[in-house]
Amino acid sequence: MTSLSPAKNDSAFKWLVTVMAAGHFALVVSTGRVRWEHVAADLLLVVLAWAGAGPRRFLRGAFPLWLTGMILDSQPLWLGLRGTIHTGDLWNLEKLLFPAPGGTHWPEWWSRHPNTPLDLLCGWAYAAYLYEVFLVALWFFFKKDARFEQLCWAFFVVNAIGVVTYVIYPAAPPWYVLKYGPGLADLSAPPSPAGTARFDAFFGIHYFANFYAKNPNVFGAMPSLHAAYPLMMVLVLWHKGLAWRVGTILFALLVAFSAVYLTHHYVLDVLAGSIAAVAAFVVVRAVFARRAVEAPGMAPMTLPSGGNTRA
C-alpha distances in angstroms, 161 versus 72, 215, 253, 283, 286? Predict the structure, then answer.
């Protein structure tokens, strides 16, 4: 079988993107979930597809980011498939494995001992963690680094792992158990900014309140994608050398601590998120390494080994 010519392949990609954007928009309209973000994202997708070779080159790499947004936003459509939601069992397991002073665990302990410096530091980390991914992706794109597309696909894969796990193992976050107790899950419970509300209150803003108001799944705490994203940046940027490794590791540790301090996640959630990040990185790296054999100009992501410092 002969492959499509570059021109035909390019045309097929344009129409594929257009059909997917139109289909997604029809879905959110028909399910009564349409917001201005849907209009903007789907319209931007089509514009980039038809705007020329340069924007289309960006879109080919960044397309997994749109797919990620789509699967996260569409969670309400399959939440009915979830099994029993884990509340008290996870709470008790956390106390057993990671006990804190007073016979409790660290999310509950920190909820009783907050302080303003940590509120501000952890709030900043919780606001910045997602922008780190996008800034690194843009940096790779403008450098014409093949890691741009690889990072975008790894981001999609780690989120797909998260969403599938939310269905298989739906779990209440610590703030939920603190507020509603460890019994049968209250499916009507609204999302909460939890400890990040103190950050909002300090500055008199509603950043986290607005952000979490759009959360479609209160019971998606395991794994912690907050912990997964920064760890993935450690892996993706490892080849840049010691300074980058130290900086990204420190930020990843700060976000992981923030997830527990702000009562959004258990230590168990953080560990699960870390495993998901490594799994997504390894899978995507393997796929692109295979592609690199067929297309020698492609630079695969490198595993943290210190031996490869290719820029």
Answer: 11, 17, 21, 12, 17
Return per-residue pLDDT of the chain as tens, 311 residues: 344 455 567 778 888 889 999 998 998 898 888 888 888 888 988 888 888 888 888 888 889 999 998 898 888 888 888 888 999 999 999 999 999 998 899 999 999 999 999 999 999 999 999 999 999 999 999 998 889 999 999 999 999 999 999 999 999 999 999 999 998 899 889 999 999 999 999 999 999 999 998 888 999 999 999 999 999 999 999 999 999 999 999 999 999 999 999 999 999 999 999 999 999 999 999 998 887 776 655 555 555 554 443 33
Task: Give the single-character DSSP code of 5.
Answer: P
Distance CA 114, CA 111 (A): 6
Q: What's the one-letter identity of residue 203?
A: F
Question: How far, in Å, CA of 116 to CA of 109, rounded?
Answer: 16
Phi, psi angle pair for 104, to nearest 5°:
-125, -160
Surface-to-core class of residue 158, CB atoms within 10 Å of its CB (0-12 exposed, 13-18 middle, 19+ buried)? buried
Last residue of a domain, one of 81, 99, 122: 81
Q: Structure pTM?
A: 0.86
**145 shares a domain with 27:** no
276: closest CA among 218, 238, 229?
229
Domain residue limits at 60: 1-81
- Distance between CA 277 and CA 188 in Å, rounded? 30
Structure tokens at 219: 């019971």
Distance of alpha carbon 65 from alpha carbon 158, whole angstroms: 11
Domain count, the chain: 2
8 A C-beta contact, residue 171 and residue 219: yes
